Amino acid sequence: MDIYIKSSDAISAQLSFEKGLPEYFESGEESFYNCVKPEYKKYISPKLLRRMSPIIRNGVACSLSVLKQAGIEQPDAIVVGTALGCLRDTTSFLTQLIEEKEELPNPTHFIQSTHNTIAGQIALLLKCHNYNFTFSQMHNSFETALLDAQMLILDGKASNVLVGGVDEMSETTYDLIKGLDCYKGTKPGEGAGFFVLSREESVVKFEGVRIINSDKVDFEKELKDMGLELDEVDLVIGGNNQEDEAGYMDFCSVIGNKPYLWYKPFVGEYGTASSFAMWMACKVIEEQKVPECWMKNRIASEKYNKVLIYNKVGNEHSLMLMTKNKV
Amino acid sequence: MSDNIAVTGFGVICSIGTNAQECFESLVNKRTGIDNIKYLETVHKDAFKLGEVKRSNEELAEMLGLTSIEGVSRTTLLAMVAAKEAQELAIQNNGTKSRTGIVSSTTVGGMDVTEQNYLKKTKDYSYLYSHPCGDSTKKVAELISATDYYTTLNTACSSGTNALIHGVRLLKYKVLDRVIVGGVDALTMFTLNGFNSLKILDQDFCKPFDAGRKGLNLAEGAGYVVLERADEVDKSYCKVSGFANANDAYHQTASSPDGEGAYLSMNEALDMSGLNPEQIDYINVHGTGTDNNDLSEGTAINRIFGIGKVPPFSSTKSYTGHTLAAAAGIEAVFSVMSIVNNVIYPNLNFKTPIEGLNMVPNTEVLKDKAVKHVLSNSFGFGGNNSTVIFSE
Q1: Can you tell me the ipTM of this complex?
Q2: Please, what are the domains in chain B?
Q3: Rounded to whole angstroms, how far apart are CA atoms A143 and A136?
């Protein structure tokens, strides 16, 4: 069965929401990236908005945008990936209970600290009784959500699945994590990337996602399993943070001289950052052009029909493949 | 889907035992694990009863043969004990498989480590590495060689069944040949104070499905079952015959009065199994003992089975307490053991039926009839409702 990406959107530190791939970057002088705030009121009532932390706002607004674009009122399933969940509410609740020595802290923060608050809120707003899952597997949170969405469609349980990745970064969190080894050489960030995965035909075809936990990856074999030869790839989007990131050497040597885009230096590193890469892939395939600012090398292509996304942290890798329908 | 997926192993640790056999003995001897607080650091030590696992972190590490528990959360240790038991049993039954993975679930992740360091204002923040939900799953996967695929669900207290649902599809679409599914949660100050702030904790023993119920007893533990494709195994305990997840879409934390989400999940799971409601021999209810859950779940059960026609049911949370993301995993193990041993467990602390429901939980250890089909419910915040049916 063929599966398509009917609509896509991303809220990020760049002007991505409800738009194409930006032609220039926002300055980004801060030590970590926060999202450019969309006009939330377009999607969420002011009363509800006041109660929502940024991660819920971004998750909900981005979801409602892709559903609107796809012309869908009720998805058959809602599947969300989040690496760290609702950190602001978690921090608020924890701080309050410790400072006030466990004297009845505010329940609202506790209620909203649960990882599935975002998917739950979307269901509540849509009055959607359907399948509702939230995955949290660090930097593979979005990938495992995506695989779940794909299997639901293959299983005939859903025709249209709302699937996305979302994480948040606050000043408090930044102060805690900035010294950690895993953020060395990176700028932490946040964002939301949502999609409607569908059986109905559209421009972008979703070919699959592979998750590999191993020191070594046989990239050619993995691609073959997804039904593609390495030579056929038109464009690569890599999760590199720096120019010469050692962990990406293996992949880059296998991939050779292909047009290569990167994004983490401009939206930041976060657990579900690969959802932003998937949004980029959709936009490039739809528009058949790449703004220069996203290019890691200066190699261009005449066509962008087959786009490969690679992400890696430690010995955990993921590959996602998107192609242009009917070329 | 029915008949394709077999349960080939199980493992559990909770307040009533550190392995499946110990837990089973407690269940059939009506021994609760809920007690005064001994291990958790909290100012509420004398105020609440909890379902604590009666082992310190050091003792858990010793059970596992670990020499260091630096940076290892209690959540991870509990998951390791139960997942290892489950995996060893599956290997004993059917040997090793080429692709093995784990789908776990947790609501708090490494919060037990985080909150203690936060409290002590530890300046070396490397303790945060154990905080994400996915960290415990990764460590367990590495311990039991289940790294071909691992992920973690967090849909609050329905998580464990959702892990099972994802796991079944991983087998069906040949991502894996064997998958360990379930959940874990350790007790934390965070959750104790959270549930206390919602005012849904009973300071005495919880009384699921009793008119005088006052709330839940918070607890900890881990439970996993091992799933494989039925046509590829020599020995198995039962099949996964049906499952479903539905959303109540009513309120972030409360259940709807008509139990719509619960009704939908039970209905769809029954539909998938091809079973009639009359064929269900035992319902392991979610039954937290809160006013809201039991009334809503009871209403939904009546809608499915018909008033007065509900099969024997009980909440084993009256033994274990509510273990959050571990609940569905632990109760999956109890459901499997119910089928294997033809035993229906009692519901402790029950006296008076809830007005209007016309439902009386089973209060005795029933051993006199065959248990072929068990339905297990697990519901959570975010309106998340899940049901699984295990069949002989």
Answers
A1: 0.97
A2: 5-391 (3.40.47.10)
A3: 10
Global confidence as pTM: 0.98
Predicted pLDDT at B3:
59
Distance, in angstroms, between A139 CA and closest chain B CA? 9
Query: Which tokens is B391 given?
Result: 């069949």
SS3 state of residue B306:
coil
- The dihedral through the CA atoms of B133, B139, B140, B142 has a sign that is positive
**CA A21/CA A245 separation, integer angstroms:** 24
* Domain residue ranges of chain A, discontinuous segments joined by +: 3-198, 204-324
Do the domains A204-324 and A3-198 match in fold? Answer: yes
Residues 6+ apart with CB under 8 A from B45: B36, B37
Which CATH number is A204-324 given?
3.40.47.10
Strands B100-105 and B282-284: unpaired
Pairing of strands B100-105, B149-153: parallel
State how far the Cα of B387 lies from the Cα of A131, in Å rounded to an integer: 12
Q: Report which of B379, B154, B130, B99 is spatially closest to residue A145, judged by C-alpha positions.
A: B154
CA-wise closest residue to B47 among B196, B207, B219:
B196
Q: Which of B157, B206, B238, B373 is catalytic?
A: B157
Question: Would you call B353 an interface residue with chain A, using a CB distance cutoff of 8 Å?
Answer: no
Residues of A with Cβ-Cβ distance to B194 under 8 angstroms: 93, 105, 107, 110, 113
In tens, the pLDDT along A117-165 reads 999 999 999 999 999 999 999 999 999 999 999 999 999 999 999 999 9
Cβ contacts of B151 on chain A, cutoff 8 Å: 135, 137, 140-141, 144
**B380 close contact with A: CB closer than 8 A:** yes
Partner-chain contact A120 B381, CB within 8 Å: yes
In the CATH scheme, what architecture does the domain A3-198 have? Answer: 3-Layer(aba) Sandwich (3.40)
